[in-house]
Design goal:
With 537 residues, the protein is α/β, with parallel strands linked by helices. It is built from 21 helices and 12 strands. It has 5 domains: 89 residues, Helicase, Ruva Protein, domain 3 (Orthogonal Bundle); 164 residues, 3-Layer(aba) Sandwich (Rossmann fold), CATH 3.40.50.300; 56 residues, no CATH class; 108 residues, Alpha-Beta Complex (Cathepsin B, Chain A); 48 residues, no CATH class. Helix 2 packs across helix 3. About 12% of the residues have low confidence.
């Protein structure tokens, strides 16, 4: 294989987690310091980052540096229901409980007794939940309640939540604010910088047995790798692996532009490239022109006694035709294809593009943190059809999977029956067929909407508060009335008016102001930005 061709002891860019290839950038070290501090302080510790940014690397280092008197429970299936999750935690720690009593209370009581005994023996207990963005709100609330188990001076359980950036969005919801307030340390891993990408590649080659002077990746190629991968280590590994295989296959020693382009094309695996359409039209256009020239040549030169009368100014001479054909068939250097497409390597960049499109200003850091303070609600959902997206009727960030398991993101701002309109980081638009987009979309959706002041959940007849006044004011505005139907209390008149609106919007007319009803009401009032219509060809 290629590693023998280069004199490596093993493949340098395997995506399997190998402690010998551990590369700790400055931010990885800073993240580890934050987590170590948080674990010692009790409460929640939060680590987030895009897929492949090195969260597993940080956690591995963290576990290695925990004191010897620490017991760790690791949960890798956070999609289980609450009793199953508590059962997994008990099983990880060796907590004894009655097998037939898988109730939340029985499992929590058993866990509490264990934690008290562990504390009495001078031992610490840590719960680590990976892929925590998949947790339900109910599961997160139950996990928060576990931190209530404490002595007068110390929390009995330290909890580490590890997940993708969606976890930050999930924790920004008002119903989980109590949990968010208990986070004592948080760190968001960013992709590697260009200099870190260069050092990362050199580090892995060196560990695999290649001397620095034989590094096959010149700096110009490293820049391209960094730009394409977004600085995400896992993507760097996949692209570098393909490039080295390409060198081996073509008996080369250094990665050049041709080898890089081939590796990138294999990694993309046909994911839509705007440049591809342009190149395709150029090829078609040149081919058509060549066919026309050949047809003219045959017509002019074909030996026939009944040659049609052609005006001299329209008759092509053999010399002229041959020259034209020669000009057409000369291969012209291809125009450079731009690296930037309407796909984003980082969810945060896609979210920022979405926020810019809908006219929401955000500061540094996670866009949803600032947005939540301004009553802008970040939401994630899982859809299975385009009809659900049309029903939502809001610009969204879609999560796409490439054939090589890359995760990229697309910002959809318009949707038709057969095509979608996407935007890039500069706000430029491009069309894409739904058939092509659907092949890559895994169903995950991110969107934002304006949350009325005081909204913490559904309300109905009999409830009181500022949200009731807000609802009554909106209906008075829609109906052109000077007086509203209710004042601080959700009465029957307001409930009946809400049911009328729900029926008109195609919703269940239950008189409950929930999120779906709010979304439709925001559309009616022009509060939220909606999807743009798409003109079908």
């Amino acid at each position: 294989m290629y590693h023998q061709y280069f004199g490596l002891v093993e493949p340098a860019f395997s995506i399997a987690v190998n402690p010998r290839y551990l590369y700790m950038s400055d931010q990885h070290k800073e993240a580890l310091a934050h987590l170590l501090y948080g674990v010692r302080g009790g409460g929640f510790v939060l680590l987030t980052g895009e897929v492949g940014t090195g969260k597993t690397t940080i956690i591995r280092s963290l576990l290695e540096q925990l004191p010897e008197n620490t017991d760790v429970a690791m949960v890798f299936n956070p999609m289980a229901n609450v009793p199953e999750m508590l059962g997994m935690i008990c099983d990880e720690l060796g907590v004894k409980y009655v097998a037939d009593e898988h109730t939340v209370k029985s499992l929590t009581d058993a866990l509490h007794l264990y934690l008290l005994e562990n504390h009495r023996r001078g031992r610490n207990t840590v719960l680590l939940i990976d892929e925590a963005q998949l947790l339900s709100a109910d599961a997160l609330e139950q996990i928060r309640l576990l931190t209530n188990l404490e002595t007068d001076t110390k929390k009995l359980l330290q909890i580490i939540l590890v997940g993708q950036p969606e976890l930050n969005t999930l924790l920004s919801q008002p119903r989980l604010r109590q949990l968010a307030q208990r986070i004592t340390a948080r760190f968001h891993l960013l992709p590697l910088t260009l200099s870190e990408t260069e050092a990362y590649i050199a580090h892995r080659l060196q560990v695999a047995g290649l001397s620095e002077e034989r590094n096959p990746f010149p700096r110009a190629i490293v820049k391209k790798i960094h730009r394409f991968s977004g600085g995400i280590p896992r993507r760097i590994n996949i692209l570098c692996e393909r490039a080295l295989v390409g060198l081996y296959g073509h008996n080369k020693q250094r990665v050049d532009s041709a080898t890089y382009r081939l590796a990138k094309r294999e990694v993309i695996g046909g994911l839509h490239d705007p440049g591809k359409d342009l190149r395709g039209w150029l090829v078609v256009g040149l081919g058509a022109a060549l066919v026309v020239v050949i047809a003219i040549l045959l017509w002019v030169l074909w030996p026939s006694g009944s040659e049609p009368k052609v005006p001299p100014q329209q008759r092509a001479t053999p010399a002229a035709s041959t020259a034209a054909a020669s000009e057409i068939t000369v291969e012209q250097p291809a125009a450079p294809v731009p690296e930037v497409t309407a796909h984003f390597a980082r969810l945060r960049d896609a979210q920022q593009a979405l926020f810019d499109h809908v006219g929401l200003a955000t500061g540094e850091g996670n866009p949803c943190w600032q947005a939540n303070a301004d009553n802008i609600q970040c939401e994630t959902a899982k859809f299975t059809t385009w009809a659900e997206l049309r029903e939502l009727n809001r610009p969204v960030v879609l999560t796409l999977n490439t054939p090589d398991k890359f995760t990229v993101f697309a910002v959809v701002v318009g949707l038709g029956e057969n095509r979608a309109v996407l935007i890039d980081s500069a706000g430029e638009r491009m069309d894409m067929p739904l058939t092509e987009l659907g092949r890559r979309w895994n169903g995950a959706v991110f969107y934002v909407w304006h949350r009325p002041q005081g909204y913490n959940g559904a309300i109905s007849q009999g409830d009181q508060g500022p949200l009731v006044n807000w609802l009554a004011e909106q209906f008075a505005r829609l109906d052109g009335q000077s007086r509203r139907l209710a004042n601080n209390r959700f009465n029957q008149a307001l409930s009946e008016r809400l049911k009328i609106f729900q029926r008109q919007a195609g919703l269940t007319a239950d008189g409950i102001l929930g999120q779906r009803t709010l979304l439709k009401l925001n559309e009616q009032l022009g509060i939220d930005t909606t999807l743009e219509p798409v003109q079908e060809p």
